Every structure is written in C-alpha cells, then in structure tokens.
Amino acid sequence: MAVPFLKMFLEYEPDEPQRAALEQASIVHAEIDREARSVLLRLELPRYVPEAVLNTAASELSKLYGMRRVRFEPHYPPEALADVDTPEALRALREEK
Q1: What distance lies between CA 37 and its chain's CA centroid?
Q2: Which tens digit of pLDDT belongs to each residue from 61-75?
Q3: Distance from C-alpha of 26 to C-alpha of 51, rounded to nearest angstrom
Q4: Cβ neighbours of residue 42 under 8 Å, at least 6 residues apart?
C-alpha cells in the first residue's frame, strides 16, 4: 500500500518549491535499519523531480529525525523520463552497474 510522502512525515515542512515537487510522491517501500539509523524509501512520482530536490529532502529528514542517512529510490512513469536531466540520468545509470 502506498503512503503519501508528506503524510508520512508530518513534522517535515519543506519550502514551497520542494513541497510542490514532493506533494504527489508516494512511498511504496521502506527499508529501515534501526542499528545503522538509516532509511531507504522507494518513491513513486508522477513527474520528474530533480536529484537536488530529493537530496535536500533527504538531508532535511535526516536532521529532523536524527537519522544518519535517508536515501530515496525514485520511480517514474515512462512519460516522465522525457524531463530527466541528461547528466543526472547518466550518473544514475553508472550507479546502477
């Protein structure tokens, strides 16, 4: 069951541009490592969200909830991939190897 991202983190108050980018995000899977104080969240997003926005949100959530690391694994519908920044896409492909 998917959980709306901003409903999961009620204490998180992103600025308006980040809120607009994340308001349609849903968490479809979470891996929590309590000992390492880390979280991996698989997100479904209807439209492309730049890596910088996701990195800022991860950093802010880490600080807010006392986590060492918060990481997002974004998933987009095929039509959203036309908006992906080319250098960012190449970096993501290299990381997948």
Answers
A1: 17
A2: 999 999 999 999 999
A3: 16
A4: 27, 28, 29, 30, 72, 73, 75
